[in-house]
Design a protein that fits this description.
Strand content: under 5%
Number of strands: 3
Structural class: mainly alpha
Shape: globular
Number of domains: 2
Distance between the termini: 42 Å
CATH class of the largest domain: Mainly Alpha
Helix content: 55-70%
Strand order of the largest sheet: 1-3-2
Low-confidence stretches: 231-242
CATH superfamily of the largest domain: GntR ligand-binding domain-like
CATH topology of the largest domain: Four Helix Bundle (Hemerythrin (Met), subunit A)
Mean pLDDT: 83
Oligomer: single chain
């Protein structure tokens, strides 16, 4: 991990550095670490490291073990199902509301971020693509008027990334991912709140189906994905009406 510069934003820098290290596998799942060691690696005191780890523990990324340190946690298939069930509950209505509240400046940024996604996909730059993907969703979540919601969905996305899974170059291409976001953007720019919400629903459902099937070692559409939070019984994602 890169050392953190001492500044007024040291706490957020430490949190970002530790989160990135967990997500990328630099701090592998199952490993145990001491606060002192992590502080030394980052070049900071123990206090901001401890505070950052407490936040990561609240997000389910790490667990404190008494007199031993902090352990990096793994994400299960059931965790993935829960994450996408929650994203459906939160992001779909948030997208609908965002269309109605979107400011001109937020709309311009959304278009710029999408253009950056296209550029990253064309360059086959998966890391930059995911950065822009996250920002695209974040703009809409923030536009819905709920900052806490944006933070929470970000933490849900981290749980998926922490597992080290991605559909890019496995279940679909970067261009395919961009295409799904293009539909959302078009509906937003048309002022079609319901259409944008349905496009977001379709995007999240498709991602869930591909990821869970991929991690289960099965073909997409052949695995029952339990999104019990949004459906009365476990069904295949491809059977859910959108």
């Amino acid at each position: 991990m890169k050392q953190v510069r001492h500044s007024s934003t040291v706490n957020s820098q430490v949190l970002d550095a530790l989160r990135a290290a967990v997500i990328t596998g630099e701090l592998p799942a199952g490993t145990l670490h001491s606060v002192a060691t992590l502080a030394g690696q980052l070049g900071v005191s123990r206090t901001p490291v401890r505070e950052a780890l407490i936040k990561l523990a609240q997000q389910g990324m790490v667990r404190f073990e008494r007199n031993r340190g902090v352990r990096i946690l793994q994400t299960s298939l059931h965790d993935l199902e829960e994450v996408f069930a929650l994203r459906l509950l939160l992001e779909v209505p948030a997208t609908r509301r965002a269309v109605r509240l979107l400011t001109p400046s937020a709309g311009r940024e959304l278009r710029q971020v999408f253009a950056a996604m296209e550029k990253a996909a064309a360059a086959d730059d998966e890391f930059r693509m995911w950065e822009r993907d996250r920002r695209f969703h974040r703009i809409l979540l923030e536009a819905s008027g709920n900052g806490r919601l944006a933070e929470y969905v970000d933490s849900l996305r981290d749980m998926v990334l922490r597992r080290g899974v991605s559909t890019a170059h496995r279940s679909r291409s970067l261009q395919g991912i961009v295409a799904e976001h293009r539909v959302v953007l078009e509906r937003v720019e048309e002022g079609d709140a319901d259409g944008a919400a349905e496009a977001m629903r379709a995007h999240i459902l498709h991602t869930a189906e591909l990821l869970v099937a991929q991690e289960a070692g099965a073909e997409p559409g052949t695995v029952d994905v339990d999104l019990g939070w949004t459906c009365s019984t476990p069904v295949s994602v491809s059977q859910i009406e959108t």
